[in-house]
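Bug #77: duplicate submission created two jobs. Keeping one. Sequence:
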Amino acid sequence: MRPAQSCGRPGGVAQWDPTTSDPMQTWLSNYIDAQKRALESVPLDAVSAMVETLREAWNNDKHIFAIGNGGNSASASHFTTDLGKGASDALGKRFRIMTLGDNVAWLTAIGNDYSYDDVFLRPLQNFGKAGDVVIAGSVSGNSPNLVRAFEWARENGLKTIALVGAKRGKMAELADQTIVINDTHYGRVEDVQMTILHMLCYAFMEETAEPGAAR
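Kept job's structure:
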């Protein structure tokens, strides 16, 4: 076996020392350990209760609105796709679900003419009715545009679900149902939030689908 060439040392040879740990491997291992702890902090009874909230909305033809910023905006779109397509295909009857962050023209018009804090509130005022469900993910729990949407939802009889990091924030106080992920690291919290969203979808796709339904 040829010895590894050292980086940045022309003609030099890097000798492997089994007593010296690889810093990257150590970092990766620590990251995965922390990710496991964050995932294990999720209370499964709370996830199950959220499944029932979505089931009630599905039974009663209520709308579900998924919202979020940045990575959580992408997760909201992902969740909307999985529930709107995959879970709906499995059950036969369709979920009435949409995300409020994908219409860029509308979002930027609101941000430009009013305030970025209103980008979810104002579309929710167009569509939201009592009994509908708003679900949002936020690492801080304090994003002003999500807080405003939750405040309006609460005042108008909509149900709210918050997936937040360990700082909790105002969303945790406003929401009807909250899961607090015991970490403040954006990557880890957002990964766990997406895992929860996948569980909410696959609960219908795998556990409660009607026999013989398309998957």
